[in-house]
């Protein structure tokens, strides 16, 4: 034996008729394979057509349904957005009246404001001449200094 | 594809390196399903395919079925083979045989056959003594090979018996060349140890 003893490892050889049987098998298998391929192609075409049809239908349905929703959304949107748009157009006085609605527990206080507005035009004078109990100017609301005194004074 | 009735394997030393590749015209004729060309093609490559499969998986009747599977697959893919490309037809056929062997191992389609049983399939001309000696040798080799890991055994068989280069084996197996070298080295070392008793005998 040499340094490579495996060189004498015998291998299995084919039988004498292996080639002829295999060629027969190849020709038969090829004959079977061709229609199988055609069948596969047909199935692929059918599936592709079905997929395109389904995709088109769903797209059309979506396209048909979607416009009704945006229309509703557009019609609903303006009322929601009107207050912020309208508020800057209003006068400062009108803006000032709006907070008055917050304390809803005082509905009868609508008449006092005109009375209070008159002394508010000259605050320092009214503060000096008026009697002490009525000279309460401490604001009870969120009125900013320098603005008209609102009904919350009383 | 069952060919159990026709099964008459012959165990012979096969080192299939020096044989020429088929001509391009024969391959072209095979693509046209010419029976004569197909017969030439099968006759030319049946021995290396059998040799690789039987050494990798162990001899037995299943090798014939697997070899036919190799030819069926190769025939189906023959259009994709480029005779002017870098790969030889032998390498290409062996790569298909290697894939078939891998699948057979994965599916456990290889019957667990004892090497001694495989030797019973020997139809070996010669004196009874010669036949017995060859059977003993085949038994010893298969027993030693069965102790190698599959990846080492495949590299070893492809390199030692089919003359494939390291780069060809690396491309076939999808591993780096260094890995092929390592596997081959380990397989050789292990087989030397396992076959030492036979050498002494």
Structural description of this entry:
The complex is a heterodimer of chains A (154) and B (201). Chain A is mostly helical and 154 residues long. Chain A folds into two domains: 18-89; 90-154, no CATH class. Chain A contains five helices and one strand. Chain A has helices at 18-65, 68-89, 92-97, 112-120, 123-129, and one strand at 10-13. Chain B is mainly α and 201 residues long. Chain B folds into two domains: 12-112, Rna Polymerase Sigma Factor, Chain: A, CATH 1.10.1740; 127-201, Arc Repressor Mutant, subunit A. Chain B has helices spanning 24-31, 35-57, 62-76, 89-106, 115-119, 128-145, 150-162, 166-173, 177-200, and one strand at residues 10-13. In chain B, helix 8 packs across helix 9 (177-200). Chain B is globular. Mean pLDDT of chain B is 82; it is low at 1-18. The A-B interface holds A 1, 4-23, 25-27, 29-30, 33 and B 1, 3, 6-15, 33, 35, 38-39, 42-43, 46-47, 50-51, 53-55, 59-60, 63-64, 67-68, 71-72, 75-76, 118, 121, 134, 137-138, 141, 145, 156, 160-161, 191-192, 195, 198-199. Strand 1 of chain A pairs antiparallel with strand 1 of chain B, so a sheet runs across the interface.
Topology:
The complex is a heterodimer of chains A (154) and B (201).
Chain A (H helix, E strand, L loop, with lengths): L9 E4 L4 H48 L2 H22 L2 H6 L14 H9 L2 H7 L25
Chain B lengths: L9 E4 L10 H8 L3 H23 L4 H15 L12 H18 L8 H5 L8 H18 L4 H13 L3 H8 L3 H24 L1
């Amino acid at each position: 034996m040499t340094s490579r003893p495996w060189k004498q490892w015998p291998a299995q050889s084919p039988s004498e008729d292996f080639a002829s049987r295999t060629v027969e098998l190849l020709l038969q298998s090829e004959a079977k394979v061709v229609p199988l391929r055609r069948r596969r192609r047909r199935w692929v075409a059918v599936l592709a057509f079905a997929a395109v049809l389904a995709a088109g239908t769903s797209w059309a349905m979506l396209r048909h349904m979607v416009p009704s929703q945006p229309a509703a959304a557009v019609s609903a949107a303006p009322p929601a957005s009107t207050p912020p748009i309208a508020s800057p157009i209003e006068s400062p006085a009108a803006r000032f009246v709006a907070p008055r609605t917050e304390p809803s527990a005082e509905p009868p206080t609508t008449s006092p404001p005109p009375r209070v507005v008159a002394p508010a035009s000259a605050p320092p004078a009214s503060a000096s001449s008026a009697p002490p109990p009525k000279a309460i100017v401490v604001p009870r609301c969120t009125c900013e200094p320098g603005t008209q005194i609102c009904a919350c004074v009383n | 594809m069952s060919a159990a009735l026709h099964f008459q394997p012959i165990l012979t030393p096969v080192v299939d390196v020096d044989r020429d590749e088929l001509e391009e015209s024969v391959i072209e004729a095979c693509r046209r399903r010419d029976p004569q060309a197909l017969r030439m093609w099968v006759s030319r490559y049946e021995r290396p395919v059998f040799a690789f499969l039987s050494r990798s998986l162990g001899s037995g009747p299943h090798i014939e079925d697997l070899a036919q599977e190799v030819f069926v697959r190769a025939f189906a893919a023959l259009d994709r083979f480029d005779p002017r490309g870098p790969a030889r037809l032998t390498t290409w056929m062996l790569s298909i045989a290697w894939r078939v062997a891998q699948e057979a191992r994965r599916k456990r389609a290889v019957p667990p056959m004892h090497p001694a049983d495989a030797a019973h399939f020997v139809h070996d001309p010669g004196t009874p003594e010669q036949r017995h000696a060859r059977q003993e040798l085949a038994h010893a080799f298969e027993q030693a090979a069965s102790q190698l890991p599959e990846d080492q055994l495949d590299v070893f068989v492809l390199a030692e018996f089919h003359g494939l280069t390291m780069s060809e084996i690396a491309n076939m197996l999808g591993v780096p060349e260094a890995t092929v070298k390592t596997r081959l080295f380990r397989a050789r070392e292990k087989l030397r140890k396992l076959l030492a008793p036979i050498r002494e005998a």
